[in-house]
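Quarterly update, task 2.4: GMT-bound model.
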Amino acid sequence: MNIGIVCYPTFGGSGVVATELGIGLAKKGHKVHFITYSQPSRLDFFNENIFYHEVSMPSYPLFQYPPYELALSSTMVSTAKYAELDLFHVHYAIPHASAAYMAQQIMKDRNIDIPFITTLHGTDITLVGKDSGFSPVVTFSINHSDLVTSVSEDLKRETFEHFDIRKDIKVIPNFIDLEKFKKQKKDHFKKAICPNGEKLLIHTSNFRKVKRVDDVVKLFDQIRQKLPAKLLLAGDGPERPNIERMCRSLPSCEDIRFLGKMEAIEEILSVADLFILPSEKESFGLAALEAMACEVPVISSNAGGIPELNIHGKTGFLSDIGDINSMLKNSLEILDDMNLETFKKNAKERATEFDIHKILPLYEDAYNETLRTYKKG
Ligand code: GMT
């Protein structure tokens, strides 16, 4: 198949899923054409089946807000023609699904008629999508997608709850490449970070408010009063300066380290004992899946689709959003040496259920089914 993938090229979950999906499809022999405004961060190697088409934005002094969506639609049209695409798969409703609809209409005018599939990832529905400034466009572009997928049952439920959706949504969860995300022997890292055998806690995110990174720090501060431990905070984003300020006011500050954005996060996950994800909203929790694949149990909130991944009492624990006391009790239970190895083993076992080799064929089936039923108009 010739597949056009549209995504955000940044470190965010939707961009990572789209890029890893494209890489996986290319390895299976499909030709994959990425269309985005810069090279996706995980696409830094050569593969004969992967192509990259940059959306370039004409700059003009009249544009206070550059019309990215129009440039994207134009690039989709030209790529579809010259690469003879069979379909588009767009990730994140805004503005990719509406740009795809526009591209589809333009192509029809030129006797090219191909379907587009939209994958909903989370904040495109639960946060920005609900905003009245966007919701009519989100509703329209979901209803006019030829197939819609969502990354969890909970996100599907929320989409139906908040938008007037007149078509089915197929749930295809996030997935993981277990060749890459596996526990590696990095004892020297552990020795350097935890020289006295402290327990190692980690959180990775884009430091947006929904991630509640302040809860991570509050929880760590309390754990630190019960046992020797260190905390790594990986990633970057708008809340980082506030979190750094907060850390500096705490006695446990010297045990907290900010890592910034990391390419090879699996290396650090390999030496961690506990992953913390206290999010306000989380449609799936790819970061937690990456940790679990590296044998790291998860303390999380019960927001959104997290319970579809993290099994309470087995791979970690779920608590109500902001319930630090419950998270503390649960963390201490996991970090108890009598329990830790079992939680680690369970986390890994659960992660294998989301093996890319199991999930990728679901997307291929979805493509084939869409191509089969697409009514050219
Ligand atoms: O977590 C983020 O804020 C990034 C966001 C994105 O769209 O890039 O991630 C969302 O998509 C991921 C991949 O499908 C999911 O695993 C994340 O749970 C989801 N984030 C939220 O719902 C907050």
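Highlight for this quarter: Residues 187-354 form a domain with the Rossmann fold fold (CATH 3.40.50.2000).
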